[in-house]
Amino acid sequence: MRDPVPGGSPAAAGTFPLLAYRASGLGLPPKERLRGCRSPSSLSPELRGSVTVPSRFWFRCGMALPRLLPRALLPLARPGCGRALHRAGSASAAPDFNSFVARTNTCGELRSAHVGQEVTLYGWIQYQRQGLFLVLRDFQGLTQIIIPQDEKSEALRMQYRYLDLRSFQLQYNLRLRSRVVMRMREYLCNLHGFVDVETPTLFKRTPGGAKEFLVPSREAGKFYCLPQSPQQFKQLLMVGGLDRYFQVARCYRDEGSRPDRQPEFTQIDIEMSFVDQAGIQRLIEGLLQYSWPEERGSITTPFPSMTYKEALDDYGTDKPDTRFGMKVKIVDISDFLRRSDIQFVQNALSSPRGTVRAIRIPQGARYLKKKDLESLKESAKSQFDQEIMDVICRPDGSLKSLLTKFLGEKQQSELIQGLNIEVDDVVLLTAGEHEQVCSALGSLRLKSADLLEAAGLALRDPAALHFLWVVDFPLFLPKEDNPMELESAHHPFTAPHPSDASLLYSDPTKVRSQHYDLVLNGSEVGGGSIRIHSAEQQRFVLEKVLKEDSEVLSHLLQALESGAPPHGGIALGLDRLISVIVDAPSIRDVIAFPKSFRGRDLMGNAPDYVTPEELEPYHIQVSWPLVEKEAEKS
């Protein structure tokens, strides 16, 4: 039975059709009804401005209906749905309840035909819960709405995650994730003979890479580490003759959170014996084709490939979003600007790796305001210490820029031709060290695309799937804190490129690796490599190149000495992959119980304090900060 409508007469028997909605495309299950606080003070600021009466009040809502709702989950009219409900497909013409008023629809008439439209509703708030969602009622029916979330509400969602999990989009995301993983298991195990092996969670420190979580043991001074990945174990499985391994692996990294990263994450971990880079790539392309959700269209293989150098030169990043143009690469800009009197350009070009590069933003002058250009310049300055100069092409074809004071008409004409500048285009130009310049412009390319799309210019098709292999990474990179020392660009177990193997012992900085990344729409969704299977070569890399203590990896070196087959593998970031598939803004929208941006579990309040008695078996004492000591005393 249904409860009677609060503040009104009992409702007719049956179920009101409720519409799942959230501003970002998320929503609640269409039959879910939540009860709770109706205080207007708990509403978000966007809603509170329309509240006029404290407890039973009118509410106005403007919204665009989500496009990702499966047809089966949209509300449908049913027989006996209540006397005021609109009956779709009635033989007689239905009266227009929305004439002469500000609303576009009543709360009972929204159907699948309205998906993608912007609608305006008026009504009473029937239920409201935690400032997160509400049910809006009028004379004709109910519409369920999720209130747009700000940062505070995002934390509230995570605190009450068990309620947030009732939302349509989270339900959809988690069920789709389950289907994808099941299909991946079928493809790997049933079709290609892979063995699903669970590897230990408690292990030891691995040289290089991200920071690891420490786990105390009862042996004084000795700690476990949570694995960044099962890297060593899967290589040991190849030594053990398992031939083909995979695992849905939990991994841990003690580093800052971002929309596409959190301290614990899941990857589809794969390793094969007697395989080369091309074999791994064909395997992954087939795996994704087999497991890809039908509602997201089909995948075309083989995926295109690009070298690391090409990606950096053309897009300023090793994970380029190829759904739109605006490449960083320019034609002979450095050469003709050498003849200019621009001081910052001359300073840059006097360096051995100095360069001048630019991106052209088509029609930028129509869509970007002055404050937008200033924010782009500030971003390049704060993040990359790069000064940016803008050039705008006026309607008469002349250039508007501080740069023109230093360039004659001929040089300006060369600039226009070299960059294919057209009317209303904006060019962002900078000079400096090659990699830093490319990285800065690559970042501005993405930020410019965001600004253009916010202003109404469609650049990136949300339904497009642009897969890309990035290959031929350098094997080693200079350390940021000490450029005279080297660190692994991928990890210390990556094999050198066969063509560069001899350089490993003479000039390791020039060695390319057999490392490959898989990029989807500008997100790195996978990465792997062919591994070193020679104990001698592995020991040389650790001791001579990376200056690491090889004793930490003595078990692996001994295993390689026992006779290791050539092997390689890859790991697909499951959280990132699913978030791209469902077009979620964060991987937290595809994880049932995620951590916050600070790495905390807000629902269970973890990490938490433990008593000195609980620490005693682990030989640990906590040195409390002075502020907390003073608070305890008071």
Textual characterization of the structure:
The chain is of the alpha+beta class. Helices cover 28% and strands 18% of the residues. It has 18 helices and 20 strands. An eight-stranded mixed beta sheet has the order 5-8-9-20-19-18-15-10, with helices on both faces. The chain has a four-stranded antiparallel beta sheet with strand order 1-2-3-4, with no helix packed on it. The chain has a four-stranded antiparallel beta sheet with strand order 11-14-12-13.
Short descriptors:
634 residues; alpha+beta; four-stranded antiparallel sheet; 18 helices; 28% helix; disordered N terminus
What's the topology here?
Elements lengths: L44 H4 L9 E7 L53 E12 L3 E6 L2 E6 L4 H9 L1 H4 L3 H25 L2 E2 L17 E3 L6 E3 L5 H9 L4 E9 L11 E10 L3 H15 L13 E3 H8 L17 H5 L5 H7 L4 E8 L2 H4 L2 H15 L4 E5 L5 E2 L8 H11 L6 E8 H21 L12 E5 L4 E3 L7 E3 L26 E6 L2 E8 L4 H11 L8 H8 L5 E7 H8 L30 H4 L10 H8 L1
Parallel strand pairs: 5-8, 10-15
Antiparallel strand pairs: 1-2, 2-3, 3-4, 6-7, 8-9, 9-20, 11-14, 12-13, 12-14, 15-18, 16-17, 18-19, 19-20
Helix pairs in contact: 4-6, 7-13, 11-13, 14-15
Major sheet strand order: 5-8-9-20-19-18-15-10
How far from one another are the termini? 54 Å
Number of strands: 20
As an assembly, this protein is single chain
What Rg, in angstroms, do the CA atoms define? 29 Å
Largest sheet properties: 8 strands, mixed
| Low-confidence region ranges | 1-91
The portion of residues assigned to helices is 25-40%
Shape: globular
Total helical segments:
18
Average predicted local confidence, pLDDT? 82
The chain-level structural class is alpha+beta
